[in-house]
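Chapter review: from sequence to fold.
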Amino acid sequence: MRLFCDMYNLKDYKIKPQPVILAIESSCDETACAIIRGRQVLADRISSSASTQALYGGVVPEIASRAHTDAVGEVVRLALSDAGLESRDIDAVAVTYGAGLLGALLVGLSFAKSFAYALNIPLIAVNHIRGHIAAAYLEDTSLEPPFITLLASGGHTAILRTLSYSESEVLGSTCDDAAGEAFDKVARVLSLPYPGGPNVQKMAEGGNFTVPLPSALIRHGDGMTFSYSGLKTAVINYCHTLAQKGQEVNAHDVAASFQKAALDPLALKAVESAEKYGIKTITAGGGVVANDYLRNTLSALCAERGIKLVLPAKRRCTDNACMIAAEGLNMYLAGNFAPMSVNARAAIPLR
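The token string follows.
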């Protein structure tokens, strides 16, 4: 076991097989706290500043940081109350240290450090993206690697082969924008409010796939590279051309066509990857995975090909602390603890 700081007296700390882990997530505009015992969720609290951020058309880092400062103590208190536990019952504290908004991360990390230090329990620094991958462990408590993971969020888009609880191989990823970022940009083009993803999905309902848009998949080489910059630009150009001609843009058709071009390749390549490597299970994580079109498309493909699909509940696809707790559990069992000197990181490479 890796010990992390002389000020801790963890020399005799013994790893527990079913630890109670309190987790904190504050990477963007959600302040979240969850508590798990093993893979059982005991509490799941989220306080969001999204309604305030919507007034500005997106996340304002300073506003997000202040909202976290106001909310973090209360969400932790409520989570402990929901779980029927006291602080002394917690075995370890897991917290997002990156990637995300630096000021927002520092709020959660500072609180977690104080909590762990006061109770003399391990601190676990979790990579936010690893959290998205780990969310599936709470959906299916019997899940074990290997499996294929489709990652689709505001900052990352990739297909990974999860080899173990600590190791994943990137099979393919975006070469520019992430899928979630593209959804937000298209939402602005269509004058839809923040957050963009859910509103694009709602606009796509009843729309037809009639707008000619390029697939997000780059069809050369290994066929596992995605590009959302070109797709986003195609939407902008289509809408701009109609406006110049004085023609009305059918936002429903644009949203539906964009959604199909953006998400069909992800679902297809995830399934093809599972078949290529002889893997019988696919999982998914990230905010875009809350999209109904993607969930339905992936479910249909997996059912057709005889592949098991583990989709986290929508609440655990967007930013939440349960996923941080799930990855925290993996790291706890490996004795992978963090020093008090650990700092927040705005960016962590996927590879």
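Two observations follow directly from the output. The first helix runs from residue 50 to 54. The chain has two domains: 20-134+320-333, 144-315.
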